[in-house]
Write a structure and sequence with these properties.
The chain is built from 4 helices and no strands. With 103 residues, the protein is mainly α. It is extended and about 60 Å long.
Length: 103
């Protein structure tokens, strides 16, 4: 026996266009910039910076949407920032070593 879930679809109001269109444009530009940055720097440096989106989303949520900031959010943000820093530093030193030994 299958259970049916009622789904109510409705068109978004005209006001949502002013939110959805810029969000789509910004998301597309962001993806293009990441792809272009991979041409300029190694992936070990560029891609860990994507984890900073989580931290910035938490900050924006706390400031704009008045979300509660918990100890877990603070600890997670510190962990993400510290690990991104370490990964970026390790990637840089490994890239420099590779260039020195392959010349």
């Amino acid at each position: 026996m299958m259970t049916q879930i009622p789904i109510a679809l409705h068109s978004p109001s005209f006001q949502w266009i002013f939110i959805l269109v810029p969000a789509g444009v910004i998301g597309t530009i962001s993806a293009i910039m990441v792809i272009l940055s991979l041409k300029l720097a190694p992936a070990s440096i560029v891609l860990p910076l994507g984890y900073l989106e989580i931290v910035s989303s938490s900050i924006i949520g706390a400031i704009i949407f008045d979300e509660a900031v918990t100890l877990n959010m603070i600890a997670g943000s510190i962990l993400i920032l510290f690990s991104s820093f370490l990964i970026t530093r390790t990637g840089t030193s490994q890239t420099n070593l590779d260039e020195q030994f392959h010349e």
